[in-house]
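Re: the pair you flagged

First of the two:
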Amino acid sequence: MVRTVPGRTDRVVVVGAGLAGLSAALRLRGAGREVTVVERGPGPGGRAGRIEERGYALDTGPSVFTAPELVADALAAVGEKLEDLLQMVPLETTYRAQFADGSHLDVHADVDAFAAEVEALCGPGEAAALRRYLADLAELYRLQLTTFIDRNLDTPLDLLGPELVQLARRGGFGRLSRHVERFFNDDRLRRLFSFQALYAGVSPYRAIAAYAVIAQLDIGAGVWHPVGGIAAVPRAMAAAAADAGVEFRYHAGVRELEVGGSRVTGVLLDDGERLPADAVVVTVDRPETLVPGFRRLRRPVYSPSCVAVHVGVRSELPGQAHHTISFGAAWREVFAELTRDGRLLGGGPGARRGRIMTDPSLLVSMPSRTDRSLAPEGGQVLSIVAPTPNLDPHSGGNPDLDWTTLGPRYRDEVLAVLESRGWTGLTGAIEVEHVDTPLTWAAQGMAAGTPFALAHTFGQTGPFRTPTLPRRGPENVVLAGSSVQPGVGVPMVVISGRLAAERITG
């Protein structure tokens, strides 16, 4: 039996208006609870931020949007339809993979089109392997969805069942790198289907093969673009929640949770106002800073961070895709530089500290390629994400990197790399710009200076990851967001909001 919040749960305060908090609020309101959402920022979105300037709309958070059915499910809790609130455009080319040898591969949502691209670049044998691999991904995802992802877990015993046995038989607990290598001989395809391990905060040489399913969400199931940008998604969710009766308080930081006995009785805001509460949903990145008595069983390991360069440019930049993965020649070295695999680079104990990628692999998103509402005529908006070490040496990070001075230099380096890889004229056409580094992420309250939260090491996955209803702390405080079950990424945090609501509604 899954644990739930005991006692009255009529009045719920949700701390944070990010995707997790909004997902929880919609579910709770749909179940008849009186819901108030408090957010220290000026509006909804959380990590899914937005800057609008000179006709450019820059999404400063997630750039890849998958599994829109999860948002549709949250909206349905209050009787709303996704298609009435947002226009979702499926991307025919989900990614363009750009390789160091000058070749590129367009990844298509349509299997036949994708296989044709692979056959043209890598040969018929690899195209046949692709079809087998995509079928394997779909089955892995089916097994994991019900076992690890789509339900609350209190103990490892909750995993016991036929799906776990099938997952083990399919090699789900081996290494991701070896799992991919069993299917593909071409090194380019091996990279394409294992770089997603960085989304989970681990090297593919350490990640379990079960994390291959991250590729199922974007390569297997497809990528979508919400018209108006990804920031339009939390805005639509918040509007639907408000129409259903959820109260929103913006510019409202939380000072503390007021405790009486074993329960939180109210939420105290920075301005001194007290909000009475029968239950509280906390979505902050570090619950220990707000929830009395909460602590983790072990010292956390965090994902690598990134430098994110968001620009509006007065240039068409013709021939580029909506999403591009630009691989450098280096591969294993990249993960060694960014994660706790740093010892692979040789040297003493200091080798475990992260360093800047010497041959960077980058994710470049140009949503105005699909959605012209995001940029003025003749312009484009781009988000360039360059993984970097975080600030926590225990996690393979490096707190000694001086991002105050390094940030501007690294921004210049990233742009120069893109210019050399075909984005000609980018640097000289920039009109609007915003740069985030591990320091700015830390200033926003993100632990270890990373927007990717806890790494998905084996000890921080499934039932070993912090549950939505922790055993330490007040009995009526529920957690949601990237740092708890099921994990990191837009689909996962939307699910976490639902799981948190179910801890309250039963």
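Second of the two:
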Amino acid sequence: MLTDILNRQAAVLARSEEVHRALVQIVLAGGGLKEVADELVRLFGGAVLIVAADGEVLAQSGSPEDLAAARASRYVHPSGRVRLERLPLAGERQRPTPRGERAVVAVPIVAGGTDHGRIVAFSPDGVSEAPDVLTLERAATVAALVITKQLAVSAVESKYQTDFLHDLISGRTGGPERAITHSAWLGWDIARPLVVVVAELDPAPGDRHAAQVGELRVQERLAAAWTAAVRARDPKAAVVGFTQEVVALVGVPQRGGLDRLLREIVTQVAAETRVLRRSFSTGVSRVVGGPEGLPAAYEQARRAVAVGRQIHGPGALADFDSLGVYRLLSLIPDSDELRAFVRETLGELATRDDEETQDLRRTLRVLLESNLNVAETARRLHFHYNTLRYRIGKLERMLGPFTGDPHLRLNLTLALHVVAMRGL
């Protein structure tokens, strides 16, 4: 009996070692997670899913019927992500499998104390015996090796992409032809009309000295969300996360609709990063025709971020061409000088902030926007004509005869624009 037990254990270990060598050989031959999943399906049948720590399916294998049955199980969300909290791990006490469902077991993929996800086996015969579990655990070790290798390669590629994009927006690539060639090698197409988009995290509310590690994690999540959103719509776009911002070179749609495309991207990124409780502001440059215009476009996008945040507050999306006079006002570094100009020009309209003063400022703004057209202003403000005439007289007593002085009207318009700016 002892001999029989030892022989059985030796056979189990020999088979496990053989499977392990086969899986390692897959990695050494350049295979990835898909090949590992294929090997497990060959051993156990059914379907195998290799999922990330957030439930995203990284690789899968099995017949279409087995995969469909796996996706329809209670362990998979309708969105396609696997519900990790519901998975029965190997070694735990298994609950009875409901009628009509395949037996399922999962093993964790761990490397260096980091949880990289799960290997999930949906087997028609079940994966409950110790040899089968041991095989899955060996496969999880190999999968951890594959993921670690991919992360290392991705880190090197990301570093190279970051350096090259920095050279692109700095004009240090050695000429347009070289820039286009290297970009094509990275999968980017910059030989077409492009806009430069810059996304920058807004300052953390109430915490101007956030921990650096936490800030880096938020920045990484923002960069990942931008990469996914942009590449889904423009596979040849360049998207790179820098230390303080995310920069994307997005192609201009041939049939127009650039504004709609960018708003869709910003909306998707905002939804995916809502859990971070940090907003971001976005700036868009003018359209450029090739790599030689990227340095100027990058500066335009950065200016749009800063000015858009001043005008609209956190979470703004600003186009450089739509900034108008705010571009010039934002170039004045002395905020005290701008405040002094507002006080000197608007007088009481600048120093007071009660409801009546705000109403008078709004009346003045609409009057100037309508080029002193009293009828149009009254219609927009829903005032009676005589009421508006009375307000115009009151404004002229406070500010001077602006209806007959174009220079005063210009000063008043600039002062109102400064009032609309935030972050001074």
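The beta strands are 47-51, 57-62, 103-111, 114-123, 194-201, 238-241, 245-251, 280-284, 317-319.

-B.
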